[in-house]
């Protein structure tokens, strides 16, 4: 049982006990991970191509479940040169049933970052837990009218006629995803800067198309002063280190998602760079090691 102040921080009138933000530097670039909160998800969505007993055993070993678990939601803020870049925007507040998510606007403010100072936004993909925050009325009002939103052309094209054939999402998620993506495109049509394979948003900040999770999914590479960090978006989930070949119910192309995930994990293990991902437990800052046929998450030692 969590103390009331943590369950309802906005009602307490006090600072949150856990500020839910973590800062680090990659060379000359400031990186801030902000938790948008958590949302409960069925464990069965985390492995749709394995025996339920095998999946249940994995979650049991993690002391999580058995049926539901709290899905972390991380948002990234980068400062490079004169650019302030938001990477994804969390779930927002318009979806009933997820009272613990949608915290990013308040936590961004608590971190001293004004939404009006954001020059660029990178959207890894247009699922509602990544664009929902931009549909919050107050967020829309506070963003500058000329903010540039970088998203792949493949992602914009996909959501015109989205295909859920290979997904295994609980209802009514597909319908809500379609609606949210359409609302996002409509609200920000004038701001969207679609790119094909790669886009250098600021010095040392490059968004790169991977596909897989959605056909237009991208990751963000940060490099400065010989240091590197990759924000993996939804190419990687907590089960992905032990079982990179497990299909996730939210993946629109599960086979391609496995290829993307393995490539990303191999690259991160070889380079020793930081890896951050949307749905790894906050603060989601760590590195990857090779562990036999699979991988191992090596969480960073927190630096206060
Ligand atoms: Zn997601």
Q: What report would you give on this structure?
A:
With 304 residues, this protein is an alpha/beta fold. The chain has a single domain (20-296), classed as Ribonuclease Z/Hydroxyacylglutathione hydrolase-like (Metallo-beta-lactamase, Chain A), CATH 3.60.15.10. It is built from 9 helices and 14 strands. The protein has helices spanning 4-7, 9-12, 52-61, 104-110, 128-131, 137-142, 153-158, 173-187, 254-271; strands at residues 21-26, 29-42, 68-80, 83-87, 120-122, 148-152, 192-195, 198-202, 205-209, 218-224, 227-231, 274-276, 286-291, 294-299. The chain has a 7-stranded mixed β-sheet with strand order 1-2-3-4-5-6-7. A 5-stranded mixed β-sheet has the order 8-9-10-11-12, with no helix packed on it. The relative contact order is 0.16.
Looking at this protein, list some descriptive labels.
single chain, 304 residues, alpha/beta, Metallo-beta-lactamase, Chain A, seven-stranded mixed beta sheet, five-stranded mixed beta sheet, 24% helix, disordered N terminus, binds zinc ion
CATH superfamily: Ribonuclease Z/Hydroxyacylglutathione hydrolase-like
**CATH-assigned fold name:** Metallo-beta-lactamase, Chain A
Write the CATH architecture name.
Answer: 4-Layer Sandwich
CATH class: Alpha Beta
Integer tally of domains: 1
Largest sheet: 7 strands, mixed
Radius of gyration, rounded? 18 Å
């Amino acid at each position: 049982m969590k103390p009331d102040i943590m369950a309802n921080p906005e009602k307490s009138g006090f600072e949150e006990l856990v500020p839910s933000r973590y800062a680090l530097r990659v060379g000359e670039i400031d990186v801030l991970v902000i938790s948008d909160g958590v949302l409960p998800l069925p464990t069965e969505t985390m492995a749709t191509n394995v025996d339920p007993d095998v999946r249940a055993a994995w979650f049991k070993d993690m002391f999580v479940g058995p049926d539901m678990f709290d899905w972390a939601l991380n948002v990234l803020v980068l400062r490079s040169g004169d650019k302030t870049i938001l990477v994804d925007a969390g779930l927002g507040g318009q979806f009933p049933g997820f009272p613990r998510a949608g915290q990013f606007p308040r936590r961004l403010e608590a971190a001293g970052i004004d939404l009006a100072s954001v020059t660029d936004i990178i959207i890894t993909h247009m699922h509602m837990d990544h664009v929902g925050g931009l549909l919050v009325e107050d967020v829309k009002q506070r963003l500058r009218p000329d903010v540039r939103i970088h998203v792949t052309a493949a992602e914009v094209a996909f959501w015109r006629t989205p295909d859920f054939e290979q997904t295994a999402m609980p209802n009514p998620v597909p319908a809500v995803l379609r609606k949210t993506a359409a609302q996002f495109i409509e609200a920000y049509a004038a701001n969207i800067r679609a790119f094909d394979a790669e886009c250098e948003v600021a010095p040392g900040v490059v968004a790169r198309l991977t596909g897989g999770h959605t056909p237009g999914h991208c990751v963000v590479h940060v490099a400065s002063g010989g240091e590197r960090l990759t924000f993996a978006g939804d190419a990687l989930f907590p089960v992905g280190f032990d079982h990179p070949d497990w299909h996730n119910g939210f993946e629109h192309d599960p086979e391609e998602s496995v290829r993307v995930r393995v490539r990303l994990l191999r690259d991160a293990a070889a380079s020793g760079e930081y890896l951050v991902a949307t749905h790894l437990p906050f603060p989601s800052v760590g590195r990857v090691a090779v562990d036999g046929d699979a991988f191992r998450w090596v969480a960073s030692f927190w630096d206060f």
